[in-house]
Amino acid sequence: MADTSPIMVGPTPYALSAVPTPFDITWGMSDVSAADAGRSDDANATMHKNVITSKVTLGLTWKNLDGEQTSQVLQAFMPEYVFVRYHEPTINAYVVKEFYTGDKSAPVHSINLKSMHIVYKTVSFNVIER
Length: 130
Fold this sequence. Notes:
By secondary structure, this protein is mainly β. The protein is built from one helix and ten strands; from the N terminus they run E-E-E-E-E-E-H-E-E-E-E.
């Protein structure tokens, strides 16, 4: 696979490999608030968000992958932490950041019992910035 893939993954920022192109990539960003964030006891119950940083979440979904492609994707994201190259919309550029992976699912679409060829309906999971 060419290094022009929209998603590349690896154990270090300098050892990235392409994975099959996802059908869907959903970008999200969550704020991380300080431990003292919350509502104050004043009459207005003023909220104090106290953002200390923001973290990116990528929702990744592949459709109709065969067994080999599914294995490639799942193995690439198997380590506890991985570096991912993706397009960061806030700066309109590709970046590399460290992520961990959420729960994975891969429901089967079809199995050819003669050839044992398997196709997965989807392979999907989130990666969350470390």
